[in-house]
Design a protein that fits this description.
By secondary structure, this protein is of the alpha/beta class. It folds into two domains: 257 residues, Zn peptidases (Aminopeptidase); 117 residues, Alpha-Beta Plaits (2-Layer Sandwich). Helix content is 31%, strand content 26%. It contains nine helices and 17 strands. The strands form five sheets. The chain has a six-stranded mixed sheet with strand order 1-2-6-3-7-16, sandwiched between helices. Strands 12-13-9-14 form a four-stranded antiparallel sheet, with helices on one face. Strands 4-5-17 form a three-stranded antiparallel sheet. Strand 1 and strand 2 form a beta hairpin. The protein is elongated. It starts with a helix and ends with a helix. The structure holds zinc ion. The site of zinc ion has 5 residues, from loops.
């Protein structure tokens, strides 16, 4: 594939605004690029999440072993357009950088794996079975990856490379923290504050929960060698009606960043257990909801997959990719739930400008990424 064609594909996907919606347009466009190869055994499947939002699964090649490439099709909101020098959905090239929303996170990574796969088909050199998984809704809860995983479409993989930005392909992210966001509601009974015994104080009950949950989570004090310890914050709190009433309702939200030493079930058991204990007391009415919890992603810096990526990195870029841990969740946190115990890593061409105005990718890194993914696939299958 020539560079002009690869840049055209990247520009097209950036020009489709997919701010937590509208991913079907990207999925349809990418599907159209693979459609000419359907007579060569390429299979294309769209998995609809909701109207206008589709995951895309494309499989090329054949064999027992399946290498997965993945990327999300959504982007975050561009924010205040006055902070941008250019229109975020009109990809613009300046001094070797392509600027636009998603240039880094992660339409360049997605386009690069697509171009690598198209190059293999064009050259009739598909080294083995390769599956592309392009997801919806990564930025707002990884629910596209959750849907793909629940449908069993990630069960057959032997390894998965997610093309999330890793400092212009200088790093390999092989492990990351999970996330448990939760919301607790406390219901009480309103009464005049001069006769508090006639009411039930929803704020007092909620504060009891808040203090105790932090104490119990602090006891989960294993330390991951790369990711450090589990962290827990209560990030929002509100309640009550007016200054002279016993508060009849209160609520809080918390954000917990988990490590591979604790599955999210351990966290649920702590919170659910505390809620049940408190609700056993007279007058307590607490309930909890979890919002898109994400599992931590375990990994090994010295796994054969990481070593192979480093070897290919040295061949293609002339530098060694550094294995790192990530503090944020990604689609990888959903794919870890797939049946089949395979390694998941993130390596991609984007810069550290994700979620910022004037988001950019180096075009040199983009083109090198295409060569890298193609070479990596060849060596993965021993070719
Ligand atoms: Zn991303």
């Amino acid at each position: 594939m020539d560079q002009a064609h690869a840049e055209e594909i990247l520009k097209k996907v950036i020009a489709i605004p997919t701010v937590n919606d509208n991913e079907k347009e990207v999925a349809d466009y990418l599907a159209s690029l693979f459609a000419p190869y359907e007579d060569q055994g390429v299979t294309i499947e769209e998995l609809a999440y909701s109207p206008g939002r589709s995951n895309l699964i494309v499989t090329i090649g054949e064999g027992e072993t399946t290498l997965g490439f993945s990327g999300h099709q959504d982007v975050v909101d561009p924010g205040d357009l006055a902070d941008w020098d250019t229109d975020p959905f009109v990809p613009t090239i300046k001094e070797g950088r392509l600027i636009g929303r998603g240039a880094s996170d992660m339409k360049s990574g997605l386009a690069a794996v697509v171009c690598a796969m198209l190059a293999m088909l064009e050259e009739k050199k598909v080294p083995g079975k390769i599956k592309l998984i392009a997801t919806v809704g990564e930025e707002s809860g990884e629910y596209g990856a959750a849907q793909v995983t629940d449908a069993g479409l990630a069960d057959d993989l032997s390894a998965l490379v997610i093309a999330e930005p890793t400092d212009g392909m200088r790093q390999i992210c092989y492990t990351s923290k999970g996330v448990v966001d939760y919301h607790v509601t406390s219901k009480g009974i309103a009464a005049h504050s001069s006769r508090p015994h006639e009411g039930e104080d929803a704020i007092a009950h909620l504060l009891e929960f808040a203090n105790e949950v932090q104490a119990r989570l602090a006891r989960l004090d294993k330390k991951d060698p790369v990711l450090g310890k589990l962290t827990s914050l209560i990030t929002l709190i509100k309640g009550g009606e007016q200054i002279n009433s016993v508060p009849s309702q209160a609520e809080l939200s918390g954000n917990i960043r988990t490590i591979p030493g604790y599955t999210n079930q351990v966290i649920f058991d702590v919170i659910d257990g505390l809620i049940a204990e408190l609700n056993a007391k007279p007058g307590y009415q607490l309930s909890v909801d979890y919002i898109y919890p994400e599992e931590p992603m375990p990994g090994d810096a010295h796994s054969p997959l990481v070593q192979l990526l480093q070897k290919v990195g040295l061949e293609v870029f002339g530098h060694t990719l550094t294995p790192v841990g990530g503090t944020g969740a990604s689609d990888g946190s959903e794919f870890v739930r797939a049946k089949g115990d395979y390694p998941i890593v993130m390596v991609g061409p984007g810069s550290d400008s994700q979620h910022q105005p004037n988001e950019w990718v180096s075009l040199a890194a983009y083109h090198q990424a295409i060569a890298f993914y193609q070479q990596f696939a060849n060596e993965f299958f021993g070719k």
